[in-house]
């Protein structure tokens, strides 16, 4: 059931003044609905009319909060982040597995849908691209960088290994390519073996036998 963002009196819709504010709870519901719709239909089909219909709000209410791109950016910004506690399992393999396991399969599928929904638009709208990177990808990128540096410090991999800089591209690329190639969502069952089959060998380290 979708939230009704504006109260109605009979057949008349009460419209808030320009300075009126919706509650934080309703604002959260609005932004959640925008991202859900983006996942379902993609950026170009995500019209203000569609958002208004999904959220039972007026377009005037939506435009008071910004353009379509601004609404999406604000929705990305308010998404809850995963636990920021640094991962440190004692091995590169364990750290990479922990990064993958941070999201369950349902969360990974939703992230994949969001990436597809923004893929084309983000490259034409640099603010969208920056926002998606900052609010969706930076945690994973930072954790991978820390995990790789710890592996260097422990002597698991050599500091001059040319593959180090490409590990984020490999793991994120695999995440995206799962749907493009296999028409299936990324899952833990798919990504965990990828670490052993592709990432660790590229770094000249190997999983324990």
Short characterization:
The chain is mostly helical and 209 residues long.
Question: How would you describe this structure to a colleague?
Answer:
This protein is mainly alpha-helical and 209 residues long. The N and C termini lie far apart (50 Å). The chain has a two-stranded antiparallel sheet with strand order 1-2. The protein has helices at 24-41, 48-55, 59-65, 68-77, 92-101, 105-124, 126-154, 167-182, 188-202; strands at 8-9, 12-13. It contains nine helices and two strands; from the N terminus they run ββααααααααα. Helices cover 64% and strands 2% of the residues.
Uncertain runs are: 1-20
**Averaged pLDDT, please?**
82
Spatial gap, N to C terminus: 50 Å
What portion of residues is helical? 55-70%
Number of helices: 9
Class by helix and strand content?
mainly alpha
Q: Gyration radius, to the nearest Å?
A: 21 Å
Number of strands: 2
Q: In percent terms, what proportion of residues is strand?
A: under 5%
Assembly category = single chain
Order of strands across the main sheet: 1-2
Main sheet attributes: strand count, strand direction, barrel closure? 2 strands, antiparallel
Order of helices and strands: EEHHHHHHHHH
| Cα shape | elongated
């Amino acid at each position: 059931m979708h939230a009704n963002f504006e109260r109605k009196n009979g057949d008349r819709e009460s419209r808030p003044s320009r300075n009126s504010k919706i509650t934080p709870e309703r604002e959260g519901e609005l932004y959640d609905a925008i991202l859900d719709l983006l996942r379902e239909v993609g950026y170009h089909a995500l019209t203000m009319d569609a958002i208004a219909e999904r959220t039972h709000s007026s377009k005037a209410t939506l435009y008071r909060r910004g353009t379509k791109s601004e609404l999406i950016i604000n929705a990305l910004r308010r998404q809850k982040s995963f636990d920021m506690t640094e991962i440190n399992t004692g091995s590169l393999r364990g750290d990479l597995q922990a990064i993958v396991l941070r999201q369950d399969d349902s969360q990974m599928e939703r992230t994949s849908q969001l990436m597809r929904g923004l893929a084309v638009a983000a490259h034409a709208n640099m603010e969208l691209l920056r926002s998606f990177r900052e609010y969706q990808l930076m945690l994973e990128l930072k954790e991978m960088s820390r995990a790789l540096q710890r592996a260097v410090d422990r002597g698991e991999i050599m500091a001059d290994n040319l593959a180090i800089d490409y590990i984020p591209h490999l793991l994120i690329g695999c995440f995206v390519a799962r749907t493009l190639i296999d028409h299936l969502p990324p899952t833990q069952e798919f990504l965990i073996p990828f670490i052993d089959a592709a990432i660790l060998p590229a770094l000249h380290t190997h999983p324990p036998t």
